[in-house]
Design a protein that fits this description.
about 220 residues, five-stranded parallel β-sheet, four-stranded antiparallel β-sheet, about 40% helix, ABC_transporter-like_ATP-bd, AAA+_ATPase, nucleotide-binding, P-loop_NTPase
Length: about 220
């Protein structure tokens, strides 16, 4: 179980964008988090993935309270999450080939020798041909780069996937293809999914349940009163 308990977070303690918000995600469950731009849902997603330390509250993973964030999180917790961001060009090192980009997490945890066997198979599963793997981000389209970023998120076989506006910059066919890859992975591995977005139709078709940001904020306000 992934639990966000009474999370308050932001980038200025005097004006947090997330105030006393809670959310739970069961293993194998897919939850859509729906809300307009700027409401705080991406910040909450980063907290859930242990990429942003909250000002208050707890992130609990399988009964264990997270004690560290980013590189200070224990490896077994840090590698339990795969994250795909909205803008692939901001989340990809422009110096890396797509092969190196996908293999990045393996090298970060000392498993770089697995890349030669793992990367081609994973790249094929997200729809990247071998001819693209030697290219760098500026040499491929947004959709192709986002496919590589999804492969990178899956390469350590995470138990939890956080897709933060993953398809917002993509066309309908690429969106459908990437959602299909995520669902195949979840069916195979039993991973939980938190899909953040502002497209109600997509989230309601994709996820087991969809939570609107206003519902989370409203519950928090009621509790605080």
């Amino acid at each position: 179980m992934l639990e966000l308990r009474s999370i308050t977070a932001g980038y200025d303690r005097r004006a947090p964008v997330v105030r006393d918000v809670g959310l739970t995600l069961a293993p194998g469950e897919s939850v859509g988090l729906l809300g307009p731009s700027g409401c705080g849902k991406s910040t909450l997603a980063r907290v859930a993935a242990l990429l942003h330390r909250p000002d208050a509250g707890q992130v609990v993973v399988d009964g264990e309270t997270a004690r560290g964030w980013r590189h200070r999180a224990p490896r077994e917790l840090r590698t339990a999450f795969g994250v795909v961001f909205q803008q692939p060009r901001l989340s990809a090192d422009p110096r890396l080939t797509l092969t190196a980009l996908i293999a990045e997490p393996l090298r970060a945890v000392g498993r770089g020798t697995e890349a030669a066997a793992t990367v081609p198979e994973l790249a094929a599963s997200v729809g990247l041909g071998k001819d693209l793997l030697g290219r760098r981000p500026h040499e491929v389209s947004d959709g192709q780069l986002q496919r590589a970023c999804l492969a990178r998120a899956l390469v350590l076989r995470p138990r939890w996937l956080i897709c933060d506006e993953m398809t917002a910059m993509l066309d309908a066919s690429t969106t459908a293809a990437l959602v299909h890859v995520v669902e195949e992975y979840r069916a195979e591995r039993g991973a939980g999914l938190l899909a953040v977005g502002h497209d109600r139709v997509l989230l309601e078709r994709w996820c087991d349940r969809t939570v609107h940001w206003d519902e989370l904020a409203g519950r928090a306000s009621e509790v605080s009163r």
